[in-house]
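Why do we care about 3D structure at all? Because function follows from shape, and shape follows, mostly, from sequence. That is the central idea of this module. The next example makes it concrete: a single protein chain, its amino acid sequence, and then its structure expressed as tokens.
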Amino acid sequence: MESQRIEHEKSFGKEAIISLVAFANTNGGKLIVGIDAKGVVCGIEVEPETIQRYLNEIKVSTYPQLFPNVLFEVRDGKNIIIFEINEFPVKPVAYKGRYYKRVHNSNHTLTLEEIVDLQQQSLSVSYDAYLTPVPLKALDQRLIEQFFARVNNLGRVSLRDDLFANLLKLKLVRDGKLTIAANLLFGDPDFAIRIGRFKSESVIIDDNIVKSPLFDAVDEALTFIKKHINLAYHFDGSIQRKERWQYPIEALRELLLNAVVHRDYKNFSDIIIKIFDNRIIFTNPGRLYGGLSLADLERNDYVSSLRNRLLAEAFYLTGDIERYLRHDVAFFYM
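And the structure:
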């Protein structure tokens, strides 16, 4: 039976090679030639040079070139050929300039966004490490100094009194130019957080657009959320009363941090936060990164891949995050 990692082909040709490419770009797999889609063994004619000819066709039509393992078997008195391919370490792999992935039991063309993401993962390069033409003088020096003070106070890395040297050390400056991360943290980033307080899906009571460097954006968004959720007070026997928010403030802050740190900044859509009477919905631009699925997130035993390594590192150094998480959509219900 065909599956995420098994494909049947009656004969060897273009579709067979596309399956190998899709396997290489996903989790690896096994292509069996000589069995039809229903699992019926139809066999294939095998001559002395057949397997080598197939391997040459795979080699010349794929880039980077694939070299699958090949097994020859006889089933029900008929010849079959089994090609086994592991997930390729340098992705994406192309078949004559086209890129494919394996989804369940079929092959799908990769989108441009998926191609870029696979390239970044293979090269261990995150999007926020790319350079930007924004000049250093355009950054908010007050924010930079506050950031350095927080980093030194926490002690996860030691910084000097040299602003430019510190930016170099944290890789926020490279080859004399600012990275995208530096502009997002301390400059005038071209993104927004749109927050609305809804009475119903179609009735908006209040709304706000936050367009600030990331550290400020998180604080401003949290202030707006706190304005529109319930606050009660209780006494636990001590002199001072205790606040009891409708939702845990630390959880809300973590969701905001995940939204700004892990969003796809190639996507020009905004982060959307909708506050209702009994729930808050956070929606973040971008697909799940690193080939993850919602099922992976629910299991919570997945290996996290970072779309924006420098941003994650910056918020880690200030103590805002202790581990790297990602949630593209989250819900809070009461």
